[in-house]
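[#protein-structures] MJ: dropping Alanine--glyoxylate aminotransferase 2, mitochondrial here for a structure pass
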Amino acid sequence: KYRSYPYEHMLKIREQNIAPSLRMYYKKPLLLHQGHMQWLFDYEGRRYLDLFAGIVTVSVGHCHPKVTMAAQKQLACLWHTTNIYMHPSIHEYAEKLTSFLPDPLKVVYLTNSGSEANDLAMFMARLYTRNFDIICFRGAYHGGSPYALGLTSIGSYKHGVANGIGCSTTMLPDVFRGPWGGSNCRDSPVQTVRRCSCSEEYLGAVGICSDYCLGCVCHANEQYIEQFKDTLNTSVPKTIAGFIAEPIQGVNGAVQYPKGFLKEAYQLVRERGGVCISDEVQTGFGRTGSHFWGFQTHDVVPDIITLAKGIGNGFPMAAVVTTKEIANSLAQNLHFNTFGGNPLACVVGSAVLDAIEEDNLQKNSKDVGTYMLLELAKLRDKFEIVGDVRGKGLMIGIEMVTDKDSRHPLPSEEINQIWEDCKDMGVLIGRGGLYNQTLRVKPPMCITKKDVDFAVEVIHTALEKHMGKAAAN
Ligand code: PMP
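AK: finished. structure tokens for Alanine--glyoxylate aminotransferase 2, mitochondrial:
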């Protein structure tokens, strides 16, 4: 079918007819043909282990048979109703999805993308509280639509037009790169894996377990909470509409906050009349392993959550889930979404939830993710340029530095080579961080320990090659 589309011809079409703001990965972009579970295949038949899952989107596996079958069956029956008529699929899905959520998060709005979900969450927060201001973290990505772009705080996604009126950023409690807990807390620099007092294993370079109990004594959490209070006192009025955060910051390179931070921040926000929004676009659906939702790892219950990416295993769908009370604030007038909740999306969403349960994928995320974190921590201990290995379950960041002392980000050209070499050896890894300095590992949750052994071996080989080259220079 695609015989008239040689590689060079496609590059030309890209240059002439496809949005130039889309940047492709790799010097020679991959031309993909097929996907199966954790594997991708290109047109030359080369197989790649997909450690980035189409930016954390393929949750249960590429073309997972159960999800594919559900979509195929529905496709032949009915695609679209615009929700002006009834169809069982949306009812089944809303019931199933909310069965995974604690009270009072029981009312579902279906949308088509994460940006749209965050737009709606922001809209609801404002309508419900009758306040306007929303706080978000620096370094966050919450969407690219003009409304959600106000919550996105990464310079490279910003354009010089008005956006984010009423959105204030606050300091990211990043204990590796931030002013507290990282290079500024040298009292307990832990460079090997050991046990934390909470019985978890230390993984981060500064003595942090995967739950981010800080092993250092610089009271980083208190310092970051002071900064949060500072934002509340200086950047917003006395009452606010809300606060949005991911449980682990995704695009910025799997940044984890000190344990207890979100709980305290939620309390401060609620004292100001605001609602708390958890963006679960990357952290939801069992990815963190220990819990089904990222917010549960912080022992909080948000007022609104937003879901996308993994919710549909790659099918374009997204959702907002909130309380009946907040939902009622939007019911004073009509709110309409043509494609949201279409039968095709709903059966896909249901099949994804079934697959997560039937394939035991949350447990797999925990077991295989923790195994991978520990294996990668060995690379951090061996190589000077691996500054930090962190994360939870299958949401992992490997932060690359020039050296462990200075923690300067490793220059892009150097990381690029390591990353390209990994691809050439058959492993696809994501990138992230303000300086593009972090390798992001967020594979389909069906990945196995054997795949991890292969991936770690490949990364090890790429790092050794880099160190050899650096020594030769
Ligand atoms: N929130 C988070 C945490 C995301 O990572 C993204 C996408 N990278 C979005 C929202 C926006 O989702 P979408 O691209 O589907 O609009």
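MJ: nice. The first helix runs from residue 7 to 17.
AK: one more thing. The pocket of 4'-deoxy-4'-aminopyridoxal-5'-phosphate is lined by residues 55, 113-115, 118, 141-143, 246, 250-251, 279, 281-282, 308 (CB under 6 Å).
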